[in-house]
Automatic annotation (TrEMBL):
Protein name in the entry: Methylase involved in ubiquinone/menaquinone biosynthesis
Methyltransferase domain span: 33-126
CDD domains from the UniProt entry: AdoMet_MTases
Keyword entries, A-Z: Methyltransferase, Transferase, Ubiquinone
Biological process per Gene Ontology, one example term: methylation
Lineage start: Bacteria, Pseudomonadati, Spirochaetota, Spirochaetia, Spirochaetales
A Gene Ontology molecular function term of the record: methyltransferase activity
InterPro entries, A to Z: Methyltransf_25, SAM-dependent_MTases_sf
Keyword rRNA processing: no
Membrane-spanning segments: none
Origin: domain of life: Bacteria
Claim: Transferase is one of the keywords in the record: yes
Length: 199
């Protein structure tokens, strides 16, 4: 396992454990799920029991290798991962999946990429569950911690996060993509929004 994969599992995964449980509770039994920006596969492991098929898409080959190894170790044969740019998925049919999800990935992208990824997720999914930072973030210890972690990531990642915050987060993005908001809830001390939407 790569160092970055081990580091993510040791530091970020424990913080996100309760969030992943909340997301799993939103899925119906035996649904099919696609996740864009699936990272090291923690979300896949948390949702796999509720899914008959789970496709994780990520640009980073190291993260995909880590996600594949984790799911294999747990015997989640319904989980598959591909190294692909989430903004173009021509090998998938329209509305092929019951649920399209994206967890804490949109905020690190540039605005045009963010919209392209969301539109492609919308094309291949019947319903969207989008999870990302609340905007604005609360002026709490947790909110300041989120700013700190993103600043630490630096470079394009931090630039994307700043722009995401400036543009108002997930809701305006979903509206631009033409989605109707079905529900929204806050999680993780108010720093994360979970938004469910449909065309
Ligand atoms: C912060 S990680 C989140 C990982 C995972 N969703 C989780 O909950 O642990 C964001 C991931 O999005 C991926 N990503 C960024 N831009 C992408 C794109 N255009 N297509 C696919 N994956 C992308 C990154 O490689 C990274 O693994």
């Amino acid at each position: 396992m790569s160092i970055s994969c081990s580091l993510y599992r040791l530091t970020i995964d424990p913080i996100l454990k309760s969030l992943r449980k909340e997301v799993a509770a939103l899925l119906s039994e035996n649904c099919t799920v696609i996740e864009l920006g699936s990272g090291t596969g923690a979300q896949a492991c948390a949702l796999a029991d509720r899914c008959s098929r789970y496709l994780g898409i990520d640009l980073n080959p190291g993260s995909v290798a880590c996600a594949q190894a984790r799911c294999k170790e747990k015997g989640f044969e319904q989980c598959e991962f591909k190294v692909v740019d989430g903004s173009s998925l021509p090998f998938l049919k329209d509305k092929e999946f019951d649920v399209g999800t994206c967890t804490l990935a949109l905020h690190e992208m540039q605005a045009d990429m963010r919209l392209m990824v969301l539109k492609e997720l919308q094309r291949v999914s019947k319903k969207l569950i989008v999870i990302d930072y609340a905007s604005p973030l609360p002026h709490s210890f947790a909110g300041k911690g989120a700013w700190f972690i993103e600043k630490l990531a630096g470079g394009d990642h931090y630039a994307g996060f700043m722009e995401y915050q400036h543009l108002g987060g997930v809701l305006p993005l979903l509206k631009i993509a033409g989605c109707s908001i079905l529900s929204q809830q806050k999680s993780l001390w108010g720093i994360v929004s979970i938004v469910i939407s449909q065309d």
